[in-house]
Amino acid sequence: MAKRKGMEWFDYLAIILLIVGGLNWGLVGLMDFNLVTFIFGVGLITQLIYTSVFVSAIYSAWWLWMGNR
């Protein structure tokens, strides 16, 4: 596998989604306030956001694991 020189757009997207997810979980843990549900309600968009954060976490874990080899 060739080494990459810089971060690709997907890397930045994954980081942004992980930050959003971390902030949301922090709000849930500290104040019992779910910002994503507050903004988008309960439905498909909220599920897509949660799924995107999940995929970003899996991708980031894989990237971290493979990048250290």
Task: Report what the structure shows.
This protein is mostly helical and 69 residues long. It has a domain at 40-69. Helices cover 77% and strands 0% of the residues. It has three helices and no strands. It has helices spanning 9-31, 35-40, 44-67. Helix 1 (9-31) packs across helix 3 (44-67).
End-to-end separation: 10 Å
Instruction: Count the DSSP helices.
Output: 3
N to C succession of SSEs: HHH
For the sheet with most strands, the description reads: none
Uncertain regions: pLDDT < 50 for 5+ in a row? Answer: none
State the gist of this model.
The protein is an all-alpha fold.
What keyword list fits this structure?
mainly alpha; 69 residues
Layout of SSEs?
Elements: H1 9-31, H2 35-40, H3 44-67
Helix pairs in contact: 1-3
